[in-house]
Amino acid sequence: MKWFKQRRVEWIIEMAAIYGYINRDHIRRKFGVSTPQASLDIADALSQTSHLQYDRSGKRYVWTGPAEEN
Predict the structure, then answer these.
(1) Domain residue extents for the chain
(2) Does domain 3-63 have CATH number 3.40.50?
(3) E strand or H helix at 60, and its extent?
(4) If we measure between CA atoms, which residue out of 47, 54, 41, 50 comes closest to residue 9?
(5) Cα–Cα distance between 59 and 48 in angstroms, integer?
(6) DSSP character for 8?
(7) 69 has a pLDDT exceeding 50
(8) Which of 43, 34, 36, 48 is nearest to 61 (CA)?
(9) pLDDT beyond 80 at 52
(10) Distances (CA, A) of 57 to 4, 33, 36, 54
């Protein structure tokens, strides 16, 4: 995985752990990436942690793990 993509994925996991959820718009605004790229980044984050679960009613990914992941 390229360095910038890895930083985005790490940020996704960290923000979800801190704030309890994250969505594609957060990633788009923070990094200036397209919606499809934000979706790919979330998919990569999902492959690195089991603590993200999609909330259909909220259209976001909710953190289901401890307050901070080690």
Answers:
(1) 3-63
(2) no
(3) strand 60-63
(4) 41
(5) 20
(6) H
(7) no
(8) 43
(9) yes
(10) 31, 24, 20, 9
Between residues 69 and 8, the one the model is more confident about: 8
Q: What is the pLDDT of residues 35-50, one digit of tens each?
A: 999 999 999 999 999 9
How would you classify the pairing of strands 21-22 and 52-55?
Answer: unpaired
Q: Output phi, psi for 60, to 5 deg.
A: -155, 170
Q: Are 24 and 33 in contact (CB under 8 A)?
A: no
For residue 19, what are the β-bridge partners? none
Whether 68 has a pLDDT exceeding 80, the answer reads: no
Pairing of strands 60-63, 21-22: antiparallel
Burial of 19: CB neighbours in 10 Å, binned 0-12, 13-18, 19+: exposed
Geometric angle at alpha carbon 10, from 56 and 40, rounded to 5°: 50
